[in-house]
Amino acid sequence: MSVTSSELMATELLRLVTAGSVDDGKSTLIGRLLYDTKQILADQLEHIEETSQRRGDGYVNLALLTDGLRAEREQGITIDVAYRSFVTARRRFQLADAPGHVQYTRNMVTGASTADLAIILLDARKGVVEQTRRHSYIAAILGIPHVVVAVNKMDLVDFSEERYRAIEQELRETSERLELRDVRVIPMSALRGDNVVERGEGMPQSMAWYDGPTLLEHLETVEIAGDRDLAHRRFPVQWVIRPISDSHHDYRGYGGQVAGGVWAAGDDVVVLPSGRRSRVAAVESLDGPLDLAVAGMSVTIRLEDALDVSRGDMLADPMESPTVARELEATVCWMAERPLEPRTRLVVKHTTRTVRAIADELLSVVDIHTLEDQPSPERLELNDVARVRFRLAEPLAVDSYAENRATGAFILIDESTNDTVGAGMILSAMS
């Protein structure tokens, strides 16, 4: 049975992250998106209406859907990033709502690390500000494939096309400098609902000059299937599966999530870091054998030969294999109160493999205000973004983050406390 592209898209999960400066209207935008797609329960809406009336807002304040949660989060009371799921007839969505202030850089990195698309909000009255450039920079270093810049509060600049075009031009220049790949600029009024889900009342008169999609139309139709690495086969082994049943005593499979490429029976394979070779005997799911598996699918792979394969090993295409590295150079976001100093011992967790490492050299740190590199810092403080060289105690099979976000990323762990203290994106690797 063939599957149409629209049916395939309806099953896809689009991961979003939102970012914006204080009072740009991020809470209102998220509330509007949930409200207009009918994701709000009746009792939630009733509570919002009552609270809006009590506060004297004069309208249903949709920002109240997220503001209470954000206030708790930014005081460090509950969680770092709020995740909300919603669904339309055309696609499923998971929205990561991370605080956008400078002191919460690590939170945005956490929320954006798996995002397919970033929504960066700005106030049409203020235009492109430092926060906008910083959020765009984080989107760039994290390799987020798609970016939407929501030019909000257009009603407060009289829906001026001239104002929108000036902002759009400045955004284009920023995007080109940061090498952002796919940027869409959408004028809107989240408070009124213009260009969020619907065109909005009065849209033909207010923003008739804009002929692009609404935010939801773009989110429902943006192509994400091609964003994953389909050219290089990568499969980090998470589990070695050996059934206890006597009838399957010779069964040996390797479970995990495909990190790259298209896998099928008959494919040649190399096991890293050992370098042993074999071929794929079968690709299986819980429902039985599969013709093929692609990035993002959780499957079991069986090999034709009985090799010694363990958790943390990586199966790969022997003709285009990753680098088996002993040294890494990476962009690191430092997430701990305790500073990172040169020669600090850490644990690197990369896909399903964990090795000890030394932060050999701090090469440069980004001035988060100017986005310029400052060479040879003495230490990294909380929320710093820097280039760091690591020396590994054992080899890792890696790609650059630009080639594969799954095999090019890692987290840093304090070996004495087991706390996660940083996140890294590999720039280059040496054997």
Q: What report would you give on this structure?
A:
This protein is of the alpha+beta class and 431 residues long. It has three domains: 5-227, 3-Layer(aba) Sandwich (Rossmann fold), CATH 3.40.50; 234-316, Beta Barrel (Elongation Factor Tu (Ef-tu), domain 3), CATH 2.40.30.10; 323-430, Beta Barrel (Elongation Factor Tu (Ef-tu), domain 3). The chain contains nine helices and 23 strands. Strands 7, 8, 9, 11, 12, 13, 15 and 16 form an eight-stranded antiparallel β-sheet that branches. A six-stranded mixed β-sheet has the order 2-3-1-4-5-6. Strands 17-21-19-18-22-23 form a six-stranded antiparallel β-barrel. Strand 18 and strand 19 form a beta hairpin. The longest helix is centred in the middle third of the chain and has 18 residues, at 161-178. The chain is globular and about 70 Å long.
